[in-house]
Amino acid sequence: MSRILIVEDEDVMADMLRDVLVAEGHEVFEAYNGEEGLRLLLEQRPDVVLLDLMLPILDGPGFLAAMGEHADFHHTPVIAMTSAGLTPHERGRFAAFLPKPFKLDDLLRALARVLPPRQ
Amino acid sequence: MGEADEGTGAGGPAHDVPRISSGTPHLDVILSGGWLRGGTYIIRGPPGTGKTTLGNQFCFVEAERGGHCVYVTTLAETHGRMMLHLRSLAFFRPQQVGRGVFYLSGFSTLHEQGLEGLLHLLRQTVRQRHATVLVIDGLAIVREEASAPMAFRKFLQALATVASLTGCTVLLTTTDSSEHPAEVEYAMVDGILALSTEPRGLTTTRSLEVIKFRGSNNLSGKHTFQIDNNGLRVFPRWEAAHPGAARAAPDPDTRLSLGLPRLDAMCGGGLLRLSTTLLLGSPGAGKTLLGLHFLAEGARRGEPGLYFGFAENGQALLRKGRGIGLDLEPFVGGGLLRLETRAPVETLPDALAQELLEHVRRHGVRRLMIDGLEPLSRGTLDPERAPRFVSALFNVMRDEGVTVVATQQSQALFGPELNVPLPGVEGLSDNVLLLRFLELEGRTHRLLSVLKMRDSDSDPHLRELVITSEGMDVRESVEGTAALLTGRGGRK
Predict the structure, then answer these.
(1) A104: which of A56, A114, B14, B272 is 20 to 30 A away, CA to CA?
(2) Dihedrals φ, ψ of B64, to 5°?
(3) Rounded to a whole number, what is the distance in Å from the CA of B83 to chain A's nearest CA?
């Protein structure tokens, strides 16, 4: 079981991902904006972050920058979920990149690549 | 950035308020220059009428101009699905998503923190992103979450204040279509644009109407629009967009040849430049060929011509010309003659007129043939509009420096009646030439007569138009006969 933080302002999307990942056996935390996401990151210390880039209050790049200020999270993988077009350099900041709309199988495959193997 | 031309509205404060182009072709004409920058507008219409497309088109065009747009959804399709649908549209720029066009969902904030929370989010986001455009897609959901009409009214007022103070233009889309004029939002916003669809026979016509536009004139009434891969394109009601008489007048000192010397002689030496001529006649009487002669003669003299018709395509027209020894191909190849054909059933008259104008301007057209005014009357056009529409079309072409020949088909091949689908057009035309068949002593003849030549001499005689593989010619007047114009004449 892994601890997954979802930071996504579209709550229907966030809720759907949560249900799927809980069914997969993960523990899931949801935030609908970057500021709340940062709070949950510091509080829950997830194994991986699913991050939407276009977020209210604190956007995805802002969240990444704040996350980078904490050494504890330098190795925490972040999977970007976004409609925004990213340059190859921008994509390089993420462990994986899921262009919206994506399929759930794509998400599960990306998670399987970035998460440590289960015991 | 994205400043639209000043509208044609009344003077005073409206001219001091900068405009922002709507990003939708010709919508700015209806809005007399575009939205007022920093204004708040409602776009209302049933689902599927194009509100989301209009809002997104505005954002992407503004982003290309260097603006910053925020698109906030409430409870509609997800952003991912929206991107999927937008991708096929010409205005979509994937590199602008997340940069010039920033998408947010406002629903969770609205649901958890109410209108106050949403307002705080919008205020903050507009300032953070230096937004010049804010679209809220789904105002009906916001209204439902309001605890009372007063709370909704306060929300709209606060939003309008944000817009005004930041210069951010706000569009609010909604499916609410209440006709009640006292609805809260009607009073609180600067304008309302209503989108609708109406069945017309087997097809559907989309139209929009400015219900309210504070501080500015606009083109009232309904205007048609289309949504295709180019996005949303509006076609202002032609006669509303081009009111008034033509500024130019037919030139009495310049005559344009029709390419047939005897026909030119019948018309007092040719058609007056900038005049409009109606070729009225039975099917097969030779209207199209006469018109092609007119265009070919112009091309021979270096005058660009445009054929705009609804039946025969370019290849068919070239064949038709070759059939009478009229070789149009060199003119087409040389760019002096353009042959354009449109499907008659699906053509919106305002779109047609707009396209004609664009062709004329793009190619410097001097001679225009409209082969078939009938398509304009086939169910797509309110019969009461027809004379005003045609009059405005002729006026605009005249002001563009174009001499027009238009054809109208009478319904009957023979007989005294001339049933024309667009009555009154002959009165709008400067010149009217009638072609009709006559059966005389076991042979059919084509009769040509000049019924009307405004401000010009003309030949009062009926003459025979002969069409053979050698060409077209006008023969001597038909002597020794009477009542030929009735279609039932005979020898005296």
Answers:
(1) A56
(2) -65, -25
(3) 7
What is the structure's pLDDT at B33? 93
Instruction: Compute the Cα dihedral for A28, A34, A36, A42 and give only its sign.
Output: positive
Asked if the interface predicted TM-score (ipTM) of this complex is over 0.90, the answer is: no
Distance between A10 CA and the closest CA of chain B, angstroms: 5
Torsion angle defined by CA atoms of residues B252, B409, B379 and B195, in that order, rounded to the nearest 10 degrees: -30
CB pairs under 8 A between A and B: 63
Q: What is the pLDDT of residues B214-240, one digit of tens each?
A: 988 899 999 999 999 999 999 999 999
Q: Is B178 on the interface with A (CB under 8 A)?
A: no
Q: Which of B86, B104, B137 to mutate to test the interface with A (most CBs of A within 10 A)?
A: B104
Kindly list the distances between the CA atom of residue B282 and the CA atoms of A22, B383, B435, B437, B487, in Å, as whole numbers in the listed order.
77, 21, 7, 7, 11
Amino acid symbol at B313? N
Under a CB-based contact definition with an 8 Å cutoff, are residues B403 and B271 in contact?
yes
- The answer to whether B366 and B305 are in contact (CB under 8 A) is yes
Compute the nearest-CA separation of A57 from chain B (Å).
7
Residues A69-104: tens digit of each pLDDT: 999 999 999 999 998 888 888 899 999 999 988 888
B27 Cα distance to chain centroid = 11
